[in-house]
Design a protein that fits this description.
222 residues, alpha/beta, Arc Repressor Mutant, subunit A, five-stranded parallel beta sheet
Length: 222
């Protein structure tokens, strides 16, 4: 059973999310939080698998809460799935850097939301091509000098791994990468795992950031 903490300062939204999640046989709501500090505390107390996190909350917001969860050793297994309005939120890139594993817009189809929780819970990142396009545009508007992966780390990647990193950066799934490079899905997954290790990336979401900052993906190519 996947245990989820709902973190949103609007009770009405939490009620809707709870009803949706409780309709799934394999997911349950472990707790509800009205702010980021409470989300961090409840994630630890309930041994949650996923925190469904709003970014804009009073006090400790979702960005800081995500950072705290990612930094806490006892919360290493907790994944953060951000709920965002994209058009308004300005902290998407920062949340990725803080350790978020995925993003959903609040008008996402209910079935897609449940599947997103499952995807993130099993350790994959949730970044669709559409979200990746927005992410890269956001990165482009606020570049961070010196944030790119070191030449030494990039130099550890084989030619094939650089190809895979580039495709991850455009938002492709393992199956899509396999089809593009004429590989088996298992081989594609193995390449992605090796790239994660060599770049010391937390998850697939951070590979998107690395691909952009290394110049492998640029705005307009996704």
């Amino acid at each position: 059973m996947i245990r989820v903490v709902l973190a949103d300062d609007q009770a009405l939204i939490r009620i809707g999310l709870r009803q949706l999640i409780e309709s799934a046989e394999d997911i349950e709501v472990a707790a509800e939080a009205g702010d980021g500090a409470e989300a961090v505390r409840l994630a630890a107390e309930t041994r949650a698998d996923v925190v469904l996190m709003d970014i804009r909350m009073p006090g400790v917001d979702g960005l800081e809460a995500t950072r705290r969860i990612s930094a806490a050793e006892d919360l290493a297994g907790v994944k953060v799935l951000i709920l965002t309005t994209f058009e308004a939120d300005e902290y998407v890139y920062e949340a990725l850097r803080a350790g978020a594993s995925g993003f959903l817009v609040k008008d996402t189809d209910p079935g897609e939301l449940l599947q997103a929780v499952r995807v993130v819970a099993r350790g994959d990142a949730l970044l669709s091509p559409a979200i990746t396009r927005r992410l890269i545009a956001d990165i482009a508007s606020r570049p961070r000098p010196g944030a790119a992966p070191s030449r030494e780390r990039l130099g550890r990647l084989t030619h094939r791994e650089l190809e895979v990193l580039t495709l991850v950066g455009t938002g492709l799934s393992n199956d899509e990468i396999a089809a593009r490079l004429f590989l088996s899905p298992l081989t594609a997954k193995t390449h992605v795992s090796r790239v994660l290790t060599k770049l010391a990336a937390r998850d697939r979401a951070q590979l998107v950031v690395a691909a952009y900052e290394a110049g492998l993906v640029t705005p307009g190519t996704v």
